[in-house]
Design goal:
Helices cover 60% and strands 4% of the residues. The protein is mainly alpha-helical and 630 residues long. The longest helix has 21 residues, at 515-535. The protein is globular and about 95 Å long.
Length: 630
């Protein structure tokens, strides 16, 4: 490069750094008149044009500097940022990989590539990149916040909490850090600390709508109706025309048993944004939509529209499946449901064999070892309700918590969180079970009780934990609480699996998107419960077996008799009417929130027969021993 060009380029760069865009642009264009392929002039001019949102002009100069013989890593960073901005994400990723290959110690390309994967909802791919940025710059609160968000996005909430706490020590007045920490604490049921952080966030930004909205959702999780509606109302004052807010309020009303108010909120949400597609699904599950309603017709029109994204179509499909099931048009309902599940099956690519292998590892540990347990007597004694989702766990909890001496805590993730958090060196669950001592179990039990008290500080001595998937951790539960009550509620596997398939379930339910996997997962559960009964045949301090099995169908047909057995097993008094779960006023945070407000009926028994011709993949893979023979 000749001396004059160097001089002009230096002057242009100085102007650029001073924010004097127009003067800098004049000089860059002057260079490009004589040297149109000058990489530095093209690169720096592109940065200014990106800043000015002149997308097409910027692209010309980006393509020029990328075509040079020896592009620098910074060129790829700038180009990657540009292609991210115009949503050509795969192009951005490929360019940023080149930058990383050239300089693996520069945090920029790692960060931008992480953002690109996050933009594609590829959170598992984004996480190690955010981690790398954090390792390169470990004490920058903004980077720590991004890493924490990445951890939380793949449900690694405990790890995100650790990162957020470190970042807040550096910047205690960060609204984002306080809010994100509160969210992760909320997810792990650490409500006392979550409240403190939400309050801190609202002190920093009292009129932030989403902090108020998140605070409301926490009180919603706790079943505090007045506080829930108070904070939703504050958010509504700030953003009165936000569709998502009304959707959340509708969900809250559904959980509090106010179906008509839920309907009103969903309609308001759709009035603001008729393309908020998950609202249609939520509305449909109220059971108030008929096939000839205008809302349903709108759903079908969107569903047939080729411009609608596949994920949005899946949301609509779940809602339409629910509506046409109610209308007894079962073939149409199933087709909608299958198309929706097919989308999520492709997205998640669930591996049932991997899960079965983990379960088999755990079985081998319990076969070979008589594991120690925490034998210190305590007043608190949980009642664990386990089973497959949609088997009647919510109904059973509401029956038990009709006893005034029992608190209902719903579906706690505490046991699974504790299990996955237990580590000694690099050894984790389930292998860690070989290395736990009585002292370890005593400490873990204290952690569980502390987590419970975060939800209800004045918890009663008896309370229910009705997380269905705790069937995976019965061995751990028995070691923590040798004399606790465990009730396994079993429903005909065909009805259970169909009921699961009727809904869009989240997180740990990914097996549900494929009927073959669904059948195999049910078999795994069924066989594991047999295994636990063999390993733990007796219950300390009780004449009953270690695990009480209740058939959903028996509970439906002989409600009073079965309720008396349940209460006797739990060492609770039975009083007349205790079986009336529909009169229980506790809020419900599961897919059963509308159904459990209704009286007991037998309409859900043998429901699978309505879909028998569509369920070959399920019926071929499910153990016939799990069928109910009336």
């Amino acid at each position: 490069m000749n001396t004059d060009i160097k001089k002009i380029l230096t002057e242009a760069n100085n102007l650029n750094n001073q924010g004097k865009n127009e003067e800098a642009k004049i000089l860059y264009f002057k260079i490009l008149e004589d040297y149109p392929d000058n990489p530095d002039a093209n690169h720096n001019l592109a940065i200014i044009l990106i800043r000015e949102n002149k997308v097409q002009e910027a692209r010309l100069h980006i393509e020029r500097f990328l075509s040079t013989d020896f592009p620098m890593a910074e060129y790829y960073n700038t180009a990657g940022r540009y292609y991210l901005m115009i949503n050509e994400v795969d192009m951005a990723i490929s360019l940023l990989e080149k930058s990383i290959d050239m300089n693996s110690n520069d945090p920029k390309p790692f960060y931008l590539k992480a953002v690109a994967h996050k933009q594609k909802s590829e959170f598992e791919e984004a996480l190690p990149l955010f981690k790398k940025v954090y390792e390169l710059q470990p004490n920058v609160p903004e980077i720590m916040n991004s890493y924490g968000v990445a951890l939380a996005s793949v449900q690694k909430y405990e790890e995100s909490i650790e990162i957020y706490r470190k970042a807040i020590k550096i910047n205690p007045e960060s609204f984002d850090l306080c809010t994100n920490l509160a969210l992760s604490l909320q997810k792990t049921h650490m409500y006392v600390e979550a409240k403190k952080n939400y309050k801190k966030a609202l002190e920093i930004k009292p009129n932030d709508p989403f902090a108020n909205l998140n605070f409301a959702s926490m009180y919603q999780a706790l079943g505090h109706k007045e506080k829930t509606l108070e904070y939703y109302s504050k958010a509504k004052e700030i953003i009165p025309n936000n569709s998502e807010l009304y959707n959340n309020i509708g969900t809250a009303y559904g959980e509090f048993g106010e179906k008509l108010l839920a309907k009103e909120m969903y309609e308001k949400s759709l009035e603001i944004d008729p393309e908020n597609f998950k609202v249609y699904r939520h509305y449909a599950t109220t059971g108030l939509l008929k096939k000839d309603s205008q809302i349903t017709r709108n759903m079908m029109a969107y569903y047939e529209n080729e411009m609608i994204k596949p994920q949005d179509k899946a949301e609509l499909g779940f809602g339409l499946g629910f509506i046409f099931d109610k209308e007894k048009e079962f073939t149409k309902a199933f087709n909608y449901l299958k198309n929706s599940h097919d989308f999520y099956e492709r997205k998640y690519n669930y591996n049932i064999e991997k899960v079965k292998n983990e379960v088999n590892k755990m079985k081998e540990i319990y076969k070979k070892n008589k594991l120690p347990f925490s034998d210190k007597e305590i007043d608190i004694s949980p009642i664990f309700i386990v089973g497959m989702p949609r088997s009647g766990t919510t109904m059973l909890e509401r029956i038990i918590s009709n006893n005034k001496n029992v608190d209902a805590l719903g579906e706690l993730t505490t046991i699974s969180s504790i299990a996955l958090r237990i580590k000694k060196g690099e050894i984790g669950f389930p292998e860690i079970l070989n290395n736990l001592t009585e002292e370890d179990y005593t400490k873990i039990r204290a952690d569980y009780i502390q987590a419970v008290k975060q939800i209800t500080p004045d918890i009663k001595k008896r309370f229910t934990d009705k997380m269905p998937y705790n069937f995976l951790y019965i061995g751990l539960i028995r070691s923590l609480f040798p004399s606790c009550k465990i009730i396994n509620i079993v429903r005909d596997s065909r009805d259970t699996c169909l009921s699961i398939y009727m809904l869009k379930l989240f997180g740990t339910h990914r097996y549900s998107h494929n009927l073959e996997n669904l059948g195999k997962y049910y078999n795994m559960y069924f066989n594991l419960m047999d295994f636990w009964k063999e390993i733990f045949p007796e219950n300390l301090h009780s004449e009953y077996e270690s695990i009480l099995t209740i058939r959903y169908e028996d509970l439906v047909y002989n409600t009073v008799e079965q309720t008396k057995i349940i209460m006797d097993y739990c060492q609770l008094d039975y009083t007349e009417g205790m079986e009336r779960f529909d009169l229980n006023t506790n809020n419900v945070r599961t897919a059963s929130n509308h159904q459990v407000r209704e009286k007991m009926t037998n309409t859900s028994i043998n429901r699978w027969k309505n879909y028998e011709n569509s369920l070959d993949e399920l019926l071929m893979n499910i153990d016939e021993r799990s069928f109910y023979n009336s």
